């Protein structure tokens, strides 16, 4: 299967003894840059998907089709394995199954399904969770939707910050029992909380945003954390860069006087221009 080796690379991160930081990726350019810099994994967050595709905040307006298409564009541009934040699976458990099918076909190496109630309920200002039973059903549906057994499926819970650490553990154990490949936690606030989770579970752990005391990568590795996210600064930096250059142009700066532009070498590398040239020479009869 075409995407198998990417998935096996993610599996080897999960079964290894170290903890890695993934590169935040959201389009064909960002994934190639992450790949060239040597990141072992790309993280395609739901928040950056919404921002890159719709220009929206993370409010669950992006559709599965849009998410999968953006994933497909990245899979085409680069062989870097990508872990996709598939939110709540875009509906109920039946939708989760469909979500897995689409993201698998789009080339995701792995994906997370979370137990947050999305989109938020009317009148609720705080995040809520679906029941543990519904969460379990979603994990089972995700596993049922997978046709390549190397695709990584992670059960994700935000219970640590939404309900309690005990609830996070209860849910993690139930998701673990469904046969998912890893557990993804957001909202863990301290080493004590992480250690409680670690001793109650056995699967590899992925941590979403974490406070400073959870930033030491060797400590995380020793606690079975295999992937630790670092937010999504690259798309934020891209926003600033586009703002600066458009502002300068709007204010009359000559294109040649612009600051902060990439070198020709970087632009050509990102475009994989040497490969395109070689292909053009072979297929279009152009000079190399
Ligand atoms: O998955 C992540 O990187 C964190 C998250 O939920 C998002 O950014 O939507
Ligand atoms: Mg998200």
TrEMBL record:
Q: Which UniProt keywords apply?
A: Decarboxylase, Lyase, Magnesium, Metal-binding
Required cofactor(s): Mg(2+)
Q: Which GO terms describe its biological process?
A: oxaloacetate metabolic process; propionate catabolic process, 2-methylcitrate cycle; pyruvate biosynthetic process
InterPro entries reported in the protein's UniProt record: ICL/PEPM (IPR039556), Oxaloacetate_deCOase_bac (IPR023687), Pyrv/PenolPyrv_kinase-like_dom (IPR015813), Pyrv_kinase-like_dom_sf (IPR040442)
Q: Which reaction does it catalyse?
A: oxaloacetate + H(+) = pyruvate + CO2
Is Lyase among the key words of this record? yes
| Residues engaged in binding substrate | 47, 156, 232
EC number annotated for this UniProt entry: 4.1.1.112
Binding-site positions, Mg(2+): 85
In its UniProt record, a GO molecular function of this protein is: methylisocitrate lyase activity
Q: How is the cofactor bound?
A: Binds 1 Mg(2+) ion per subunit.
Q: Which family does it belong to?
A: Belongs to the isocitrate lyase family. Oxaloacetate decarboxylase subfamily. Belongs to the isocitrate lyase/PEP mutase superfamily. Oxaloacetate decarboxylase family.
> How does the record describe its quaternary structure?
Homotetramer; dimer of dimers.
Record-linked PANTHER family: OXALOACETATE DECARBOXYLASE, PHOSPHOENOLPYRUVATE CARBOXYLASE
- Task of the protein: Catalyzes the decarboxylation of oxaloacetate into pyruvate. Seems to play a role in maintaining cellular concentrations of bicarbonate and pyruvate.
| Identification of the protein by name | Oxaloacetate decarboxylase
Q: Which organism is it from?
A: Bradyrhizobium cytisi
């Amino acid at each position: 299967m075409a995407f198998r080796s990417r998935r096996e690379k993610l599996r080897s991160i999960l079964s290894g003894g170290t903890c890695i930081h993934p590169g935040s990726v959201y389009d064909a350019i960002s994934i190639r840059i992450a790949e060239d810099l040597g990141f072992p994994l790309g993280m395609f967050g739901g928040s950056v998907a919404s921002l890159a595709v719709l220009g929206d905040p993370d409010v669950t307006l992006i559709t599965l089709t849009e998410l999968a298409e953006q994933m497909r564009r990245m899979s085409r541009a680069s062989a870097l394995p990508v872990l996709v934040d598939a939110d709540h699976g875009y509906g109920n458990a039946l939708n989760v199954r469909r979500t897995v099918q689409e993201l698998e076909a789009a080339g995701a190496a792995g994906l997370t399904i979370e137990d947050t109630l999305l989109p938020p309920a009317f009148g609720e200002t705080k995040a809520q969770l679906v029941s543990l039973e519904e969460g379990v059903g979603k994990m089972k549906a995700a596993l049922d939707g997978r046709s390549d057994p190397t695709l990584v499926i992670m059960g994700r819970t935000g219970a640590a910050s939404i309900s309690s650490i005990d609830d996070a553990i209860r849910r993690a154990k139930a998701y673990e029992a469904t046969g998912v490949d890893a557990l993804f936690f957001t909202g863990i606030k301290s080493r004590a909380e992480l250690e409680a989770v670690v001793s109650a579970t056995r699967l590899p752990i992925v941590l979403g945003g974490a406070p400073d005391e959870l930033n030491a990568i060797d400590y995380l590795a020793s606690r079975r954390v295999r992937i630790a996210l670092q937010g999504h600064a690259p798309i934020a930096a891209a926003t600033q860069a586009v703002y600066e250059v458009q502002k300068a142009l709007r204010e009359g700066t000559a294109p040649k006087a612009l600051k902060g532009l990439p070198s020709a070498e970087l632009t050509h590398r990102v475009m994989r221009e040497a490969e395109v040239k070689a292909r053009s020479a072979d297929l279009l009869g152009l000079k190399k």
